[in-house]
Specification:
single chain, 80% helix
């Protein structure tokens, strides 16, 4: 019961921030699912983290798609950078997925924590350490953003929203574009997981369903993803009324809280 309640509350919150900030909620889903699998089910850390990533990605596909639909209805959608980045983004996400499977759990977790603080500081202080990357060709930027996103199990909103703002898109168009690109990241990462478990490490006794191939925790799909879809509608409506400064500050505060909680559980 505690697990179901935790997943449901997380799902409602994830749906809210998916529409408001253009992120799939991975920065919340990954630590929550990983924690539950380790402490309630005794799963080893490496597999629990990979399952947290996979569960986050399947949720991002749903929340990102629904958020994109509502942003389209609210006329906030801009598809220019989606068309430019879809190919490189898929390549980078696929590579990141392989690193999640074969990388060291401790270093992956440290990277997750530092990424949360880095993104928050960038929003609050306008210090952008990624600014030199913005001069790279669009394809290189897409690969880098896809790689980072899949490593921490996010939809790329914390990377793409600030970047798209520098490309003269307003905050609402940046958020809507990030939602679309997040779906691409999620599909590519899950494709990596499925292909690895199908062809590199064929089915074993630990793989009992199609969801296992993608490192997807089924209860999170039911009790987290589905409730999240209910709250996306309201957050996309709120996006229209909020000013840009409020959105950025709220986004940064959220990242700081997540980073602190993740650091405590290293």
């Amino acid at each position: 019961m505690i697990e179901i309640l935790t997943l449901s509350v997380t799902g409602i919150f994830v749906g809210f921030i998916a529409g408001l900030f253009g992120i799939g909620g991975g920065l919340i889903i990954v630590p929550v699912v990983t924690y539950l699998l380790i402490h309630l089910h005794g799963m080893n850390h490496q597999l629990a983290f990979a399952t947290g990533i996979g569960s986050s990605m399947i949720s991002i596909i749903f929340t990102g798609s629904v958020a994109t639909f509502f942003n389209y209805k609210n006329k906030n959608l801009n598809t220019l950078y989606f068309k430019k980045h879809i190919g490189p983004l898929m390549a980078g996400s696929f590579i990141g997925g392989m690193l999640v499977i074969y990388g060291n759990y401790y270093y992956l977790k440290v990277f997750f924590v530092f990424y949360c603080f880095f993104a928050a500081i960038k929003l609050l202080t306008k210090i952008n350490l990624l600014k030199p990357i913005y001069c790279f060709p669009e394809k290189i930027i897409g690969i880098i953003f896809g790689l980072i996103s899949s490593l921490v199990g996010i939809g790329g909103g914390t990377l793409y929203v600030p970047y798209l703002v520098t490309q003269k898109l307003n905050i609402r168009e940046s958020v809507s574009s990030a939602s679309m690109l997040g779906v691409v990241i999620a599909i590519s990462t899950l494709l990596c997981f499925f292909m690895n478990n199908l062809f590199i490490h064929p089915i074993t006794n630990n793989f009992k369903s199609i969801f296992d191939y993608g490192y997807i925790y089924v209860p999170s799909l039911i009790f987290l993803t589905l409730p999240s879809l209910l709250s996306i509608y309201f957050s996309t409506k709120l996006l229209i009324t909020m000013n840009e400064i409020t959105i950025k500050r709220s986004f940064a505060l959220l990242l700081i809280i997540i980073g602190c909680l993740s650091f405590v559980n290293l």
